[in-house]
């Protein structure tokens, strides 16, 4: 049994999630892949074709579409919010740049549960527009889902296309990612892995977006809403390992994946998280030039350019409840196992038998 399989099997045994799927590979494709567990605690076994809620891994995929627009000269990183969104003019976000939004340095506060008081799309978007900026742009990294909601609106306005169509055209179609989409239809909802027994919606969430703000937006947002399969995430990992093959020019991919917040407390690329010296969600197994992103549902994609390797991890750690932080140890142990030969350390700091 491989180290990655040991770690993820033990994660299920500890009831951190009902199921997990993973892949480690390079530009030529997967070197190791697998899955363990079930789609829900009393559901069918995973079979490798399962559909996962990517949660915030949506952000860098939307970011890839935005950078493809940069490549095409449709937008620039220094375009402002006011350039593309007339309703934001003469407000505190008018002069924020696309670069600020991509690096989470816009000053727009993050993780705000707007859905609680704004139950319609129009009301929630108005609330995002009116949410006060709390820091001077470019001076602090503050993770902001609301900033990526604004980024999605800019991408729509600049391209003249709905965000879901834009992501499909600029990211999914070029890579053959046929099973990555917002708002899965009935056939794919039947293959979806369960997430939370949601107290707000009063039901178990299967095949609809877990993020509540994204749900109010109709399932499509710059911050969350994408679903995908293990195979499609492998295609994305391989393309990024090959320098953005099929997606971006080499220079634009390099620009996107380089650190843009040196001197600030957290290391951010453009839509990607850089490898922080301490506190990285993947531990220290991946090098200082690595980048990636995690998702609240228990997903992640991480890249290590010097070695040309990617690591995909898909779990449903919010099933049936979001309470608990066991995924943090599992994620670090998985990435350690993915990069280091020999017996893997488990998520609990002991070598599995």
UniProtKB/TrEMBL annotation:
Superkingdom, natural source = Bacteria
Q: Which GO terms describe its molecular function?
A: hydrolase activity
Could you say which residues form the signal peptide? none
Give the record's keywords alphabetically. Hydrolase
* InterPro entries, A to Z: Beta-lactam-related, Beta-lactam/transpept-like, Diverse_Enzym_Activities
Q: Name one Pfam family in it.
A: Beta-lactamase
In what residue span(s) does the Beta-lactamase-related domain sit? 6-324
PANTHER family for this protein: BETA-LACTAMASE-RELATED, BETA-LACTAMASE-RELATED DOMAIN-CONTAINING PROTEIN
From the Swiss-Prot or TrEMBL record, give the protein name. Answer: Esterase
Tell me which species this is from: Streptomyces cadmiisoli
């Amino acid at each position: 049994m491989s180290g990655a399989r040991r770690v993820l099997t033990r994660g299920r045994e500890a009831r951190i999630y009902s199921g997990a799927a993973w892949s480690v590979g390079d530009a030529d494709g997967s070197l190791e892949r697998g899955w363990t567990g079930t789609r829900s605690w009393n559901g069918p076994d995973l079979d490798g074709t399962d559909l996962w809620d990517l949660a915030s891994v949506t952000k860098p995929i939307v970011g890839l579409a935005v950078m493809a627009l940069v490549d095409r000269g449709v937008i620039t990183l220094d375009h402002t919010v006011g350039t593309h969104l007339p309703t934001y003019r003469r407000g505190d976000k008018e002069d924020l740049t696309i670069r600020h939004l991509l690096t989470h340095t816009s000053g727009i506060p993050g993780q705000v549960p707007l859905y609680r008081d704004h139950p319609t799309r129009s009301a929630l978007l108005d609330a995002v527009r009116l949410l006060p900026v709390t820091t001077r742009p470019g001076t602090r990294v503050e993770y902001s889902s609301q900033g990526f909601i604004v980024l999605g609106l800019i991408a729509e306005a600049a391209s003249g296309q709905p965000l879901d169509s834009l992501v499909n055209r600029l990211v999914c179609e070029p890579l053959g990612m046929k099973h990555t989409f917002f708002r899965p239809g009935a056939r794919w909802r039947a293959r979806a892995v369960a997430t939370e027994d949601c107290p707000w919606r009063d039901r178990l969430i299967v095949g609809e977006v877990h993020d509540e703000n994204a749900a109010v937006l109709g399932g499509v947002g710059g911050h969350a809403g994408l679903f995908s399969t293990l195979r499609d995430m492998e295609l994305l990992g391989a393309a990024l390992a090959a320098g953005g093959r099929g997606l971006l020019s080499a220079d634009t991919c390099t620009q996107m994946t380089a650190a843009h917040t040196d001197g600030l407390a957290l290391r951010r690329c453009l839509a990607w998280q850089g490898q922080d010296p301490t506190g990285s969600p993947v531990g220290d197994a991946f090098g200082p030039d690595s980048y990636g992103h995690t998702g609240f549902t228990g997903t992640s994609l991480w890249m290590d350019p010097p070695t040309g390797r990617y690591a995909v991890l898909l779990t449903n750690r919010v099933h049936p409840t979001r309470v608990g932080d066991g995924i943090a140890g599992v994620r670090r142990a998985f990435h350690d196992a993915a990069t280091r030969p020999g017996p893997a350390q488990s998520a609990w700091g002991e070598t599995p038998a």
